[in-house]
Amino acid sequence: MIENENINTGDSRELVAFRVGDQEYCVDIMSVREIRGWTPATPLPHSPEFVRGVINLRGSVLPIVDLAGRLGLPSPEPSARHVIIVAQVNDQQVGLLVDAVSDILTIVDEKMQPTPDVASEQAKAFVRGVMAIEDRMIRFIDLERVLPPLRSEAA
Question: Which of 12, 73, 125, 128 registers the highest number of CB atoms within 10 A of its CB?
Answer without folding.
Answer: 128
